[in-house]
Write a structure and sequence with these properties.
The complex is a heterodimer.
Chain A: E1 4-7, E2 10-13, E3 18-25, E4 31-37, E5 44-50, E6 53-57, E7 64-70, E8 73-79, E9 87-94, E10 105-106, E11 110-114
Chain B: E1 3-5, E2 10-14, E3 19-21, E4 24-26, E5 32-39, E6 46-52, E7 59-61, E8 64-69, E9 74-79, E10 88-96, E11 105-106, E12 110-115
Parallel strand pairs in B: 2-12
Antiparallel strand pairs in B: 1-4, 3-9, 5-6, 5-10, 7-8, 8-9, 10-11, 10-12
Classes of the chains: A mainly beta, B mainly beta.
């Protein structure tokens, strides 16, 4: 089973709203990732959590706040977003960040629209 | 510098045609992994294959085959007898050791359109 689930599938929010994206995996993976993907572009890495600790932050604006409550869950808290933040947000997980044979498995994504 | 180039932006074929998607990579690492992912219109990236830098054997999985050549830094992907369900964006990606195997370097993707 290589399933990563993400909720919600679609989200529309205003610039003053606070919302959260949720990602879950039950594969026993110890690394989880957030990516942002704009239309017709490849995914861009935002954050990496390794063993529930933030290991990489790709200079993401503070209006995006990740959280890893446990090894199966990853959240992305959104606050005061801009219209240019509208994109597909993808979550991925892998066996363990830094493991050479690691493969990242992706969820279906959340399509975010900021009005 | 780590870089992946997919020069073909979009390819259109008719069902049952064979099609090859090109991928050229750049890295100074001697240890790295290469991947292909498929992204259908639904959005999810589907893992297709992983190859390590020490294994140049070609691989075949059903209608899919991959040709890895270190001499030309290429990792090309061929779909034999294409089907409409193969329509998607395909990404080639590099996972180099100098990022602690944590950062995938994606190519820009090739959009494949298979018409009936």
């Amino acid at each position: 089973d290589t399933e990563v689930t993400q909720t919600p599938k679609h989200l529309v929010m205003g610039m003053t709203n606070k919302k959260s994206l949720k990602c879950e995996q039950h594969m026993g993976h110890r690394a989880m990732y957030w990516y942002k993907q704009k239309a017709k572009k490849p995914p861009e890495l935002m954050f990496v959590y390794s063993y529930e600790k933030l290991s990489i932050n790709e200079s993401v604006p503070s209006r995006f706040s990740p959280e890893c409550p446990n090894s199966s869950l990853l959240n992305l808290h959104l606050h005061a977003l801009q219209p240019e933040d509208s994109a597909l947000y993808l979550c991925a997980s892998s066996q363990g960040a830094g493991v050479s044979t690691d493969t990242q498995y992706f969820g279906p994504g959340t399509r975010l629209t900021v009005l | 510098a780590q870089k992946v180039t997919q020069a073909q932006t979009e390819i259109s074929v008719v069902e049952k045609e064979d099609v090859t998607l090109d991928c050229v990579y750049e890295t100074r690492d001697t240890t790295y992994y290469l991947f292909w992912y498929k992204q259908p219109p639904s959005g999810e990236l589907v893992f297709l294959i992983r190859r390590n830098s020490f294994d140049e054997q070609n691989e075949i999985s059903g209608r899919y085959s991959w040709n890895f050549q270190k001499s030309t830094s290429s990792f090309n992907f061929t779909i034999t007898a294409s089907q409409v369900v193969d329509s998607a964006v395909y990404f080639c990606a590099l996972l180099p050791v100098n990022t602690g195997f944590q950062k995938l370097v994606f190519g820009t993707g090739t959009r494949l359109l298979v018409s009936p």
